[in-house]
Design goal:
The structure is a single chain. The chain starts with a helix and ends in a 6-residue tail after the last strand. 41% of the residues are buried. About 3% of the residues have low confidence. The protein is mainly beta. The strands form 8 sheets. The chain has a 6-stranded mixed β-sheet, with no helix packed on it. The chain has 4 helices and 35 strands.
């Protein structure tokens, strides 16, 4: 039987000799399915496809079946939850499958590459970045400064005398405040409306980062002292707030100290990363080689799993799939399912970079896509169903130190003193 590509006139004469089943080439029966809207669906009848076909050729097949040769769309293809990144024959060989079977292939629109939107000159190493769903951009610099950009307004102020390690936006009702963590053992926040400054004290070593709770009414910090501390939204009236001596002026703003609501102990070494994705669940990664899952209300570990000897630099939780992605100094991103009870929690391992991976962030609108940044000056957009990057962003001239992905935008910060913004919205139907 001649393959579909040959009978449809989609191959040249030399290609026909290689791809036609009755002329020595190898083909396999394929059924194409999709969850795309009706205008993208094709007849699910099996058709013979040469096993030499890869993504570009299969994309031509779908466009031909849709009679979309005038305005072809690029498609991507998935077999048994694995993206096709070579040809069909390589997939069959990898899984020891015969051409006698019928192969079910799911197709979807190939997402466009991230498009650079804007560059912000910071004139200093960028240490931390936060991209708010409201389009607010906050980034912190190694010199202890904070830059807050929203609604065409940019404010820059100094929060710490030592390098900043993290930055977030906390919110309660209509009030919002930027909180930063630092190697000076503290966290700081400045309320622009009242002029009050807040210093969060309690850690005994450099604070490595800060993350907001889902409601953003609270935040958690983690430190080289091997502890995590939970903090409430800072207000002057809070019980956990006291004024710093010498700053109590009735005519002007005060500096106030904050105490933690609770402290979580369990790690044996410095904590390098954490996230707080659901109201009562928190996750942290430490130099002790473990990722711990926490019950926030009871301040106790519910489970833990070993991630290996390579230091963890960042973690991100996918609220859609329940998977955890972690970035490491061995140039990899690992994907974990903490719910697995037997054996390793490791789901996938992606070797995408040429140097340490500094951070990782899931696409909030995808079960599968994440981005990672590295000291190799690049940011990679990956899909956990493949072991290679989908797109590579090379926009910085020095190490990419921080990155965040929020609602169709990626923001990256670098030692080159710039912040870059990229549009990642998928192609519209």
């Amino acid at each position: 039987m001649a393959s579909f590509l040959s009978s449809a006139g989609m191959l040249s004469e030399p290609e026909k000799t290689n791809a036609s089943g009755d002329q020595g080439g190898t083909s396999i029966a394929c059924i194409f399915t999709t969850s795309l809207p009706a205008q993208f669906k094709v007849d699910p009848t099996p058709i013979e496809i040469p096993t030499t076909a890869a993504r570009a050729t299969l994309s031509d097949v779908i466009n031909h079946l849709l009679d979309a040769s005038d305005e072809p769309r690029p498609f991507d293809f998935c077999i048994n939850d694995e993206l096709l990144r070579s040809n069909i024959q390589s997939y069959l060989d990898k899984h020891k499958l015969s051409t006698e079977i019928t192969l079910n292939i799911e197709y979807m629109l190939l997402p466009p590459p991230p498009k650079e939107q804007d560059t912000v000159q910071a004139d200093e190493w960028v240490a931390a970045i936060h991209l708010d769903p409201s389009q607010r951009l906050v980034f912190a610099l190694f010199d202890g400064s904070v830059v807050d950009m929203r609604n065409e307004e940019t404010v820059k102020y100094k929060n710490h005398e030592q390098p900043i390690s993290g930055a977030i936006v906390m919110q309660k009702n209509s009030d919002s405040i930027v909180v930063t963590s630092s190697l000076d053992h503290s966290l700081c926040a400045h309320d622009k409306s009242s002029g009050h400054s807040f210093v969060f004290v309690g850690h005994d070593a450099p604070v490595r980062g800060v993350a907001a709770s889902p409601s953003r009414h609270q935040c958690v910090s983690w430190s080289e002292d091997a502890s995590l501390k939970v903090w409430d939204f800072p207000t002057a009236a809070s019980r956990s707030t006291k004024k710093v001596a010498g700053t109590n002026s009735k005519k002007g703003p005060s500096t106030m100290e904050r105490s933690p609501v609770s402290t979580l102990h369990g790690h044996d070494m410095s904590i390098q990363a954490a996230c707080w994705p659901t109201n009562n669940s928190m996750y942290s990664a430490s130099d002790d080689g473990f990722i711990r899952c926490w019950d926030v209300e009871n301040s106790e570990t519910t489970s833990k799993f070993l991630v290996g000897t390579a230091a963890t630099t960042g973690i991100s939780f996918n609220s859609r799939s329940g998977l955890i992605a972690s970035s490491h100094t061995d140039r990899t991103v690992r994907v974990w399912d903490y719910r697995m009870k037997d054996g390793s929690a490791l789901v996938n391992k992606v070797n995408a970079h040429l140097g340490w991976v500094t951070c990782v962030s899931w696409d909030p609108n995808s079960d599968h896509k994440f981005a990672s940044s590295s000291i190799d000056c690049s940011t990679k957009v990956c899909d956990m169903r493949a072991n290679i990057a989908t797109y590579t962003i090379r926009a910085h001239s020095d190490e990419v130190t921080c990155m965040d992905w929020s609602e169709g935008r990626i923001a990256t910060g670098s030692k080159d003193g710039t912040v870059k913004m990229f549009n990642t919205n998928s192609a519209e139907y």
